[in-house]
Amino acid sequence: MVQNQNNTNDSLPNSRPDKKTENNVKKESTNNEVGELSEEDRQLKEEFDLLAERVQDSDQAVQKLALETLKSEIRSSTSSMTSLPKPLKFMSQHYEPLKTFFQTMVDGDNKKALADILSVLSMTMAPEDSLDCLHFKLLGTQENPESWGHEYVRHLAGEISQEYERRILAEVQESGMDDIMSMVKQIVPFLLSSNAEPEACDLLYEVDQLKSLVDYAEEANFERICLYLVSSADYVPEPDVSDMLKVACSIYRKLGRSTHAMRVATRLGDMELIRNIYQNDPEKDALGNVVAVRTQLALDLASRNIFLEEETDEDLKSWMGNTRLYEFYLSLAKDLDVMEPKTPEDIYKSHLVDGIGRLGLNSNLDSARQNLAATFVNAFANLGFGKDKLLMDEESRWVFRNKDHGMMSATASYGALMLWDIDSGLAELDKYMYASEEYVQAGALLGIGIVSSSIRNEVDPALALLSEHVENPRSSSIRIGAILGLGFAYAGTCRMEIQELLIPIVADASAPLDTVCFAALSLGLVFQGSADEELVSTLIQSLLDRDLANWENESMIRLLPLSLAMLYTGRRNGTEAVIEAIQAQIPGVPGRVAARLVSIFGSAGSGDVLKVQEFLNICGLHSSHSEGTDDEATTSEEISSGNVPPSAGHESRTSSSTEIQSERLPKDKKDEKELLDEQIAACLGIAAIAMREDIGTEMAFRIYGHLLQYGEPSVRKIVPLSLGLLSVSYPRLQVMDLLSKLSHDNDREVAYAAIMALGIIGAGTNHARIASLLRQLSAFYAKDASGLFAVRIAQGILHMGKGLITLSPMDNERFSMYPNAFCGLFTIIYLCCVSQHTLLNKHHYLLYLLLLAARPRMLYTVDEEMKPLLVPVRVGQAVDIVGQAGRPKSITGFQTHTTPVLIAGGERAELATEEYIAVAPNLEGLVVLVKNPHYVKMEDI
């Protein structure tokens, strides 16, 4: 056949074959095909030709017999379709004649039977987008389509989706959908019974009937249904995201899986739903152990800093209030034998640095700065252990070996050392509450807030101790310490007492700027995600009251729009109105920056592609854009595709500057500064939105590579910090290598940002390669006070909690985000963008905001009485199993350990024994185990 066709084409090299030639080729190829058939296939083809002829017979009885025979043959061949069935292959030439004959038939059973057969034949023979399969099925018998096989049902489901969309666009009434809805009700049970849950979910989603999935969910299929729904929620727009998650939550509740339902409810951020699940569901949980389930629910809420006042049980209140978290943390440390305190020198390992580096490191050019760095390194390395060799040594009087604000950070580090152990922490800090140095008092107040972070105590000591110093008339430092302490202690709690204390400070136009900004920050932390109208209006008015012309000179004023944005954390759909209000009321750069930040916090972790494109467009702008010359700038599309010559943007800017010379140069400089703040927010926004899912993370990494290559110098300074936010406590090799190169950049701001980002991606991991890179950098920046300070801070963050801590704002499954952790992390990274005026200047104590994200990266198993339970678990690299057939393994490359164990970024754990069942939906943090009632020991068999 191919040879004949080639010969035909060769005879007419410069023209198309005429119609007669095409027909001859088709006839010849058909004859060849028939000639190639086996004897059995030729006989089968002749039988189908005869059946097709008899279907068109005028005798009704002959028609009926032929239709039944044809129906039987096709059904037997399509029930399992691995290749094109022979009946469909041999009937292809009869499809059009049968369609024509169908139009002439009188209504009756024979016509409906032929409609069914034509519906099946149209799977392979109908023109694309004709929807003949569904059309003939609706005209045929209304018997269940599953009798024609799985492939037919899948094809029919696809055409139902297209037909539904077509009718919606045509504004067909709901009653006009009854025919296809009845078909959906037949198809969905079959798909669910044949392990095609994803296809059933897709069909119901396409026809806007996803809620009916709750009725079909059963014990045998609910896990695969819910896994598909919660995974698909990352790839659909709002409000479909919420709809999918709510359906999954309803299915979990129906099947008595309270802990799974709570996990979904916390991602939704619906406090009413969370309360409903906690109060009503455990009584009917499928596990049958109400005590264990309620305990696990309390632990899950505690990990997300949610405390329900309605709980009356004292034990559950203590678990929900995190009051005993430090006990399990220290137990983990004892089990891993890391209780011995670390000194800063243990972290620096100066003896491993070459001779030139040691010479620089031992110099006393800036001893106060080195002492300050040692304070932070000591606090981070011994985080939560309650003892160290620096501060606890009374002879060293370490606090007083620092200067001014350094004393404040040193005193506050007691709070970090005693993290989560509120009783011991308050006793230790009480020694400094009445010191003569105001900075020491301020540090003690800040330390009280730090040690109380994420702890809920009936006595509420933080509020009692800090509130009386908020209006301290004697010292602004003490006021700031108390104000920030309240923000740390009550982050995410929405306590109205804090609002009453701090709103007057923010609203006072005559108050010092630093005090106002820190009060706003504390309010943002406490009321994150609440969208409190009074706070929003107060913060907007505070921005208006300030002299916005000094925006560039006052770095701390950036905390005002940042605090405003925190109020909309996770409120993806509720930000449009406030963004419009901000843009209308706040002029210039502050208004634009505030609008961007609100958009970022509202969409954080959502993977919203449209937002990423919007922010990328801002990052691709050049200062010449403010003059309206679009042809002089590189577009975001060119940046994202990587199709820009390296010199393109440079040449345009050079020619532009040559033309304008003297009179426009000052204006261009101003435009560049105005654009900088908006680009800072936009660049960080890409990472904040894409950080929760793998595909988005990979694409964001590629985008940042292009921005480094073709973006403005101002954007290059932000890219390292954005990469850090993208991979918090998850040191991916490609990110690490890129940051290592940038840490030696000629632009010192880029280098400092890369150094901090290296610490952030390795936070709490003790990663050996990053530790080696930072040691080399300590020698490289030995004579640069700011660079060396940044290296020391990064080293402290890397060894945080001696490797037992994670700063990741997401759970290990990357299912949902912790608002507290995200707000603290983003604030630090945002301030790092102007670190020379903030963190590397006198506001270094803000580095403790990282502790809002700190939590043990452990798996600790306990029984229903919260006593440790040592069981074997497998820990390995997580594998995506959504939609896979059977029961695939969810981890690969695993190792078997006995709990408690550490879980690194990208890893997942599963029980290696069937003796116990985990109450928690995923093995992370504190997990309650119950006895498996069906377990039988091998020796008992």
Description:
This is 26S proteasome regulatory subunit. Belongs to the proteasome subunit S2 family. This protein is mainly alpha-helical. It has a domain of 85 residues. It has 44 helices and 9 strands. It has a 4-stranded mixed sheet with strand order 6-3-9-8, with helices on one face. The longest helix has 43 residues. It is elongated and about 110 Å long. The relative contact order is 0.06. The N terminus is likely disordered.
Mean pLDDT, all residues = 83
Q: Can you summarize the main beta sheet?
A: 4 strands, mixed
Bin the helical content: 55-70%
With helices defined by DSSP (H or I, 4 residues minimum), what is the helix count?
44
- Terminal CA distance reads 67 Å
**Computed structural class:** mainly alpha
Shape: elongated
Cα gyration radius (Å): 34 Å
- Oligomeric nature of the chains: single chain
Q: In percent terms, what proportion of residues is strand?
A: under 5%
Based on DSSP secondary structure assignment, what is the total number of beta strands? 9
Residue runs with pLDDT of under 50 for 5 or more positions: 1-34, 355-366, 625-670
Strand order of the largest sheet: 6-3-9-8
What is the gist of this entry?
58% of the residues lie in helices and 4% in strands.
